[in-house]
Amino acid sequence: MHSQREGEVRVIKVGPLGPFSNNAYVLIDPATNQSFIVDAPAEGERLLEAARGTQVQRIIMTHRHSDHWATIDALKEATGAPVYCHEADREAHADKVDGTLTDGQEIPLGQLRVRVIHTPGHTAGSICLLVGRHLIAGDTLFPGGPGHTNQPEELQEEIRSIVERLYSLPDDTAVYPGHGDDVTIGCSKEEYAVFASREHPHDLCGDVLWEGE
Predict the structure, then answer these.
(1) DSSP reduced 3-state for 109
(2) Which residues lie closer than 8 Å to 111 by C-beta, 6 or more apart?
(3) Residue 80: which domain range?
(4) In a domain, 211, yes or no
(5) What percentage of residues in the chain have a pLDDT greater than 90?
(6) Overall average pLDDT of the 67-80 stretch
(7) Is the previous residue joined to 201 through a cis bond, with omega within 30 degrees of 0?
(8) 81 has pLDDT over 60
(9) How far apart are CA 195 and CA 129, in angstroms?
(10) Per the domain annotation, does 93 fall within a domain?
(11) Is there a contact between 25 and 39 (Cβ–Cβ < 8 Å)?
(12) In angstroms, rounded to a whole number, what is the distance separating the alpha carbons of residues 172 and 134?
């Protein structure tokens, strides 16, 4: 478990969790003790431990892939909190979802505001969450590259999402991904510059590294 604080927002990173080494997060407004849980992978009891003593207002899902939903029923039952995701990823988990989120929406968390950034590519409904200089990135952006894609069109869409929606954020914005280590927007932009300087095959997709061959 890892915790960072910036101003009035507290971000707790919990992971790696389960067979896919997921990360999940608890966002807390210390002024009101209200919180959001972000994603529900295996070992959800560790998320509940991280959120203990707070008032969980929502469970927000970054995208539809099942490894991020493994303990959604247990978390929902334990907290009584409603579950939200983007409309484009709702169908796979329709019986779990209480509401959907839209691009640019600002969700109140106590005295804070958490902004939804729609970043399609990895999935049609992938979202990132921005609070202060903290970006919960789901599987959209990792240290070294973008999230996995199955088709070249998906990779191009994901790159547009990253470049147009995320790289406009301040360079010192911390990026917390759905798996693995953290990175900053500035560091990621430097990695992407290497990728952008090279020619690539038209059918490129899959697990792509910005600085890979």
Answers:
(1) strand
(2) 8, 29, 31, 32
(3) 2-196
(4) no
(5) 95
(6) 98
(7) no
(8) yes
(9) 25
(10) yes
(11) yes
(12) 9
Tokens 């990026």 sit on residue: 175
- Tokens read off for 62: 């970054």
- Stretch (H or E) spanning 192: helix 185-196
Contact 176, 182 (CB under 8 A): yes
CB atoms within 10 A of CB 206: 12
Residue 19 lies in a domain: yes
Which of 209, 128, 140, 134 has the alpha carbon at shortest distance from 175?
134
pLDDT tens for 168-206 read: 999 999 999 999 999 999 999 999 999 999 999 999 999
> How many distinct structural domains can be found in the chain?
1
- Give the amino acid at 168: S
Q: pLDDT tens, 87-134? A: 999 999 999 999 999 999 999 999 999 999 999 999 999 999 999 999
How much of the chain is helix, strand and coil, in % rounded to 5?
Answer: 25, 35, 40
Cα separation, 121 vs 98, whole angstroms: 24
Residue that has been written with the tokens 């983007």 in this structure:
86
pTM equals: 0.95
CATH number at residue 47: 3.60.15.10
8 Å CB contact between 21 and 41: no
Q: What is the pLDDT of residue 212?
A: 84
